Amino acid sequence: MAMPLSTERLLWGGYRRPGDPAAVHSCYYQRASDDPHIAQLWAYTDNLSYAPGAMARLHVNTTAASFDMTIYRDGAKKLTVFQRQQIPGGFHPTPLDCSIEGCDWPVSLEFPIDDSWASGGYVIELTARGADGARLQYDHVFLVCPPQLHGKGSRAGRVLLVAATGTWSAYNDWGGSNHYEGIAGENGDRFSPVLSLDRPYARGFVKLPATAPRIPLRDPPEIGAAVRYPHMEWAYEHGYSKKYASAGWASYERPYVHWLETAGYAVDVISEQDLQFRPRILDGYDCLTFIGHSEYWSWEMRDTIDSYVESGGNIARFAGNFLWQIRLQDQGRTQVCYKYDAREQDPLRDTEQAHLTTTCWDAPETGRPGAQTFGLSGTRGLYAAWGGCSPRGAGGFTVYRPDHWAFEGCDLYYGDVLGAPSRVFGYEVDGVDHVVKDGLPQATGADGAPDNLLILALGLASVYEADHDNGLPLFIGSEDAVFVAKTLHGEAAPETLERYRRGCGMIATFERGRGSVFTAGTCEWVAGLIDRDPQIERVTRNVLDRFMACP
To answer: Over the stretch 259-306, which tens digit does the pLDDT of each residue have?
Structure first.
């Protein structure tokens, strides 16, 4: 909502103390007001992505008499494709549990996805005037998929970006609940295991100012300083979701698409849900790419990726935190993930479908370690340059194999740190169990890592946020360390906690079947592209160029 924060507070719920760093622990969220006298404008579409020729449906809730609508393709060059003015508005009540059951607003407008619209991310910009004349604005994003073709190489010269839409949904706290915090549900759960996509995106998921902080700390804290979380403090002060930097088009996919197109690459975009419901959409592409925070995946999504690589496809994954299994219901409009509570609450846990239990991939219930698909896993990595987890770390990957083709032209030496100026190592990273022999890291395979995994670079991370008793409560704490210890070892005794409190992040590559996988296991690789770090740009080009040229 583009209104002064003083009037906007009525459209926020939860506990908030502006300027208080301890307030990051509160559940602070946007939602529609049930008071029809409060100026407001919200919207969502009926799908995450659309094929050319499809009809999109927009659900709008506003107290304004009418609103205007502009749709533009959010690429390196902004291209407006649709405009309409004076669309009749309508106010609709919003259920308290809208995060879980959906907003259930009626369709306000239908519009066709024209065949001329190139694949990519499209922003819907809605504007209106409230009864008092105040300007209202709400922004939504949807994806336009490429037309489906058949035959290997029929998309030669194009790269296909798979947007991390499962993670978008998991972090979206509009309405009060996500997979991290919650205000609704039978028991007032601390998080909701069930989320509806029939709701708007929280502020910051679609658009952000260039000044919005990213999560990794840019400057190391002074000795003895209190642990701080600058991006969340900024979010509270400026009226954005505190999860804006964890997920969404604005923080990750958007800058990557802009970089790709500026660098001369032709890029198409699909959702992760398309992997499950339209797996043939990958036909014709030599290279799939991923960026940012790609944490939540369904069994079927993994099946599609594994089959693609086996049959000769290539993966360029510049993303981190491959961790949770989800289930999609209602044709993808409902997302389920019981996470930490899966062993006690997931209804599939003791059935013949126990492998679909929505816990982490490395849990024994799934029988499908995360490292089998992308080479690395979140349980062996996790936090870096965030809060009290390695806040003064190197900020980049220490290079162990500088002569690898991925580093060609980077002028890297053994022991150099790649990407440190842009803090590309964080905020969540992926690794595997490994040993260092003769100065080189080698995967042990104990956690399901491929036998031919080649580790090129790595850095230190922590699953446990150390408490230095510096005056402020911790945001991360020990919860994840306890969960990992219980999951991987069966208990969280002091000795097992000590074993699993440390992790790592890696750059690695391997071959499977007729295809190849390259993984830079970090959420923040895109920060190096935003900053135009020449070495990060060169590695990205090396990987994409090699994989797109594969026969």
So the answer is: 999 999 999 999 999 999 999 999 999 999 999 999 999 999 999 999
Q: Between β-strands 55-62 and 314-320, what pairing exists: parallel, antiparallel or unpaired?
A: unpaired
Burial 253-276 (b: 16+ CB within 10 A, else e): bbbbbbbbeeeebebbbbbbbbbb
- pLDDT tens-digit readout, 413-472: 999 999 999 999 999 999 999 999 999 999 999 999 999 999 999 999 999 998 888 877
127 and 73 share one domain: yes
Judge contact between 322 and 377, C-beta under 8 A. Answer: yes
Q: Taking every pair of C-alpha atoms in the chain, what is the biggest distance, in angstroms?
A: 72
CATH assignment at residue 123:
2.60.40.1930
**Tokens found for residue 476:** 């991360």
389 DSSP assignment: B
Q: Are residues 97 and 210 in the same domain?
A: no
DSSP 376: -
H or E stretch at 483: helix 479-489
Q: Which pLDDT band, with edges at 50, 70 and 90, does 151 fall under?
A: low
Using CB atoms within 10 Å of the CB of residue 86, give its burial: 0 to 12 exposed, 13 to 18 middle, 19+ buried. Answer: exposed
**Residue 249 forms part of a structural domain:** yes
Structure tokens belonging to residue 39: 């100026």
Question: Is residue 427 helix, strand or coil?
Answer: strand
Phi, psi of 77 (to 5 degrees): -115, 120
| Spatial distance between the Cα atoms of 495 and 458, rounded to a whole number of angstroms | 25
Among 43, 13, 29, 243, CA closest to 139: 43
Do 225 and 124 belong together in one domain? no
CB 362 within 8 A of CB 379: yes
148 vs 114: CA distance, rounded Å = 15
Range of the domain at 81: 5-141
Model pTM score: 0.95
Question: What is the four-CA torsion angle of 494, 498, 500, 503, rounded to 10 degrees?
Answer: 160
Query: Is residue 195 one of the residues assigned to a domain?
Result: no
Number of domains forming the structure of the chain: 2
Whether 475 and 415 map to the same domain: the answer is yes
CA distance 283 to 298: 20
| Ramachandran sector of residue 375 (left: φ over 0; alpha: ψ -120 to 50; beta: rest) | left
Band (16; pLDDT cuts 50, 70, 90): very low
Report the run of H or E that residue 456 belongs to, with start and end: strand 454-462
End-to-end CA distance of the chain: 48
Cα separation of 57 and 69, whole Å?
13
Closest CA to 509 of 318, 351, 343: 318
Contacts of 354 (CB under 8 A, 6+ apart): 348, 365
d(CA 65, CA 49): 29
* pLDDT class of 394 with cuts at 50, 70, 90: very high
